[in-house]
Each structure stands twice: as structure tokens, then as C-alpha cells.
Amino acid sequence: MKIKDGFLLRQVAGQTVVLPTGGDLDLNMMITLNDTGAFLWEKLQNDCTEADLVAALLADYDVDESTARECVESFVKKLSDHDFFV
Amino acid sequence: MISSSDHLIIKEELLPLIRERLDSGNKVRYLPFCGVSMLPLLRQGLDSVEIGPLPEKMKKYDLPVYRGRTGKYIMHRVVAVKEDHYVCLGDNTYIYEHILPEQMLGIVTTIKRGEKLIPVTSRSYRLYCRIWRAIYPIRKALRSLKQWLRRLLK
Question: I want to staple B63 with a disulfide (CB 3.0 to 4.6 A). Which of A28, B59, B108, B120 is the partner?
Fold first, then answer.
């Protein structure tokens, strides 16, 4: 899995939002990420698997494996629903 | 009676982002709004607008978005172009506003009316603008009559 090119993360009022890098801006398509979401987004700039993401969460966050797995699955599904993957 | 002004619901923190996109020649969609001053065209809660960068000079019937005195972003129609300012009026208001070019943020390019997208270049939209403006004296007279009748019955 890898995020498509053409998106960037931006801080807006203390929140991390995903924006298209250029072109028109559709406010309805703007996605807000929490700290973990932004972390996973950065990891997904490079090709990786769900297992890689779970491992990254376990390494950087104080979280148990089942919570990390749930978090990754839900995040990946959200991105997939919005067609963010290559 | 002063009708409330239609104002776009723009979160202050999104403004730099919106300005940035408009300045780079892009459009921002779809912004919801509050108010009744652009009826019958724009209905609060049902419709929204796409805005684009400002043209060099606006024309009569254009629908700009500008920062009003209260700081909110208003969209009312240009009904006259003066040398140094624009005269704007909501489709459902009767008080002219004099707006300086520096108050302008962008211009409405498409109206999302329900599920229908209406580009402001469309023939039907342009016809609406002309007819609605042309019958302004009639609308104003009817409104005065309605107010007079209301007072009579009080």
C-alpha cells in the first residue's frame, strides 16, 4: 500500500488536514487526521503493509497490539474508501 | 427593515488556505452559507457555491464574495460598476451596498442548487439575473404594499 502522489498534510488551526497539492480545493473532500493518522499517513508515503504499520505504531506509541491492529485496519479502510491508495 | 445578509460559512482558520488557492488561480468548493438575502436563488441549508479568483474587473450581475462591515463574508450581486467601487444588492434585499475592490475575496463561479450544478455562465442563470434585476421596481413596490397592508391590519 502506498498513498497516491498529489496530496499533502497541512496544519490548519492545530489540526492536520489532507489537501490536494494543487488545483481546486473541495472542502467536502478535506480529511482531518489525528496524531496517529498523521503518523500512519507519513509511513504510507512509502510502500508498506498493514503489518508494517502495526509494527510502526507498536514501536512509537504506548499501545497494545490488538488496539494498534484495529487502528490500522480502520485507518486503511478510511483511506481506501476515499481512494487515496495507488 | 434590513434583510439579513447572506454570508458564507468560512471558518477563519481556513481563510489563508482559501485565499492561497484563489490567488493561485484555483477554485474552492462548495461553501455553505447563512441567510435569506439571495432568495429565490440561494436557499440556506440546501444550496452552496463554488468560488473562483477575482477577475480584473467585475461586471454587472456578477456574484462576488466580499468581507462585509461585520467581518463576515457576504455574497450579493453587483448591480452597478463605478469607477472606484461596486454597488451590490442581494436578490432579496433593498439596500444598496458600496463595496471597495479590496474587500473582495472571490467570485461565485458555480451554484450547487440542491443536486444541480449551475455554472454562472449558463444561459438560464444569466436570464434569471437580468429578469430579476429588471423587475426590481415591481418587487420593491409589492414589498412596500405588503408592509403597508401589514401596518393597516395592526
Answer: B108
Domain containing A63: what range? Answer: 7-81
Q: Is B13 near chain A, with CB under 8 Å? A: yes
* Nearest CA distance, A32 vs chain B (angstrom): 13
Looking at domain B7-152, its CATH class is mainly beta
Could you tell me the residue ranges of all domains in chain B?
7-152
Question: What are B25-82's pLDDT values in tens digits?
Answer: 999 999 888 889 999 999 999 999 999 999 999 999 999 999 988 888 999 999 999 9
Residue whose C-alpha is closest to residue B9's, from B31, B29, B36: B31
Q: Report the DSSP pairing between strands B104-113 and B64-67.
A: antiparallel
Domain count, chain A: 1
ipTM of this predicted structure: 0.74
User: A12, B17: Cβ pair inside 8 Å?
Assistant: yes
In a domain, A37, yes or no: yes
